[in-house]
Amino acid sequence: MSTLKEILTRRPVSATIRLTVPAGGAKPAPPVGPALGQYRLNLMAFCKDFNARTQKYKPDTPMAVTITAFKDNTFEFTVKSPSITWYLKKAAGIESGSSRPGHVEASAVTLKHIYEIAKLEKLCLGL
Amino acid sequence: MAVGHFFKHLSFTLSRRSMNPYRSQLILYTGPLSLTHCKQRHELTTPTSTKPTISLSSVHGSINSSYLSVRIRCPKHVADTLSEALLCFGASSTSMDEEDGCKNSDEICIDSTFPEFPDVGVCISQAADSIGLKEIPKYEIKMGGQNDWIKKYLESFHPVEVTEGLWVVPEWRTPPDVQATNIILNPKLAFGTGEHPTTVLCLLLLQGLIKGDEVFLDYGTGSGILAIAALKFGAALSVGIDIDPQAIESARYNAALNNIEYEKMQLHLVPGQTCPPSMHENGVGKDQTSFGAGPGLMPEKDKYDVVIANILLNPLLELAEHIVSCAKPGAVIGISGILSEQLPYIIDRYSQYLEGISVSEMDDWACVSGSKKRNL
Question: GO cellular component annotations, sorted alphabetically (chain B) (predicted)?
Answer without folding.
Answer: mitochondrion
